[in-house]
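hey team, just a heads up i'm posting the complex here instead of the shared drive bc the drive is being weird again. everything in one block, sequence lines first with there labels, then the predicted structure for the whole assembly after. its two chains so it's a bit long, scroll down
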Amino acid sequence: MNHRLGLARGRLTPLLIFGAATIVDAALALAERIPPQPVDGKIRWVYSYDEGKAAARASGKPLFVVFRCER
Amino acid sequence: MNGVNIDLFQFEYDLTWMGFFMDAEDRFYARYGGREDAEAESHLNKQSLLATMRQVVELHRQGRTQMGRYEPTPKSTRTPEDIPTMGPMMARRKDNKCIHCHDVKVASLRHLQSIEKFSRDMVFTYPAPSAAGIELDPVDQSRVRRVVAGSSADRAGVRQGDRLAAADGQRVTTLGDFSRVLELTPAEAALPIEVERGGAVVPLELRLAGNWRRSGDPSWRESLHVAGPNGGFWGQKLSASEREMGKLAAGAMAVKVTFIWGDHTRKAGLRTGDVIVEWDGGRSDMTINQLHAHLNLNRNYGDTVDVVVMRDGREHKLRLQLPTGPPAND
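-- predicted structure starts here --
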């Protein structure tokens, strides 16, 4: 459990192209179609790896991919 | 982890949090996460995250992703659902079909058990730097904060204050980076490392042998229950005041039973409210996770374990006959 970083128990993959201002919240495009538990805060996370990569290519910025326990 | 490419995102699945810095072509700059036994957040903090981000921005500008044999280069996608034991495991779950990180490891280990290739040491994945005798600074994560006396690092000549720059040619920015190298290092190995000391790069060699991957307190690992039998109950350590009331010494074992699920536990006569003061011959202080971990790693199904509990102000001796195999729905 990682409370310091504002995370709780669960299993998802949010992505952040850090430094970018055009992060888009996306529906989870994974096999089970389980919706992610949104992360509170000022950062807008992307919940699809492919969308994150597309945004990283478009912005020329690196990705920060996080796996967190949420449930 | 549903649908995640686990050939690409390889990490310690017993963790509850892990981060990767990457480019848009599935290549890695740095791994951020991992832990020492003592604390889940031992190396997760805002300062180190920011420092790693700054380094990654510069690496990204220079196009310096990690290369070499420690980096996954998946030709195809393999997901947790592809692990043969995952389907039956998830089918038994009624409500929550989320595949947790630790489920990936549990299913993988169970698969190895099913093809008779499992050994208990397989639980000890992604060794922390301390496995090699190096304690990395929680903030400046490539800086050696302490070298364990008599350890591989000590014998290699690693010194406090050194900067661990590379391990077997792999850049080390974080604890996660070093742990990744250790994960793919064989049980018997001479691991070349480079440390920066006083402005110079010093090549050293970590000689690793024996059970160096085994850590002292793996009780935090969710996957541990795959390794062996458990006690069939839940409980919690008594507080200092509770110990005082029960006249139990500080530093001695005192775990109060709060919930019993194991038939073998009930048959042994263990009751909710009992305080366990001796477990398989030991009386040193343990958490409930440590009690279970002891059995998981040191006892076999079918073994008998002696237990002493405090009940109504006096000690009672019990014998716990462990089940002959894992429960069918495990």
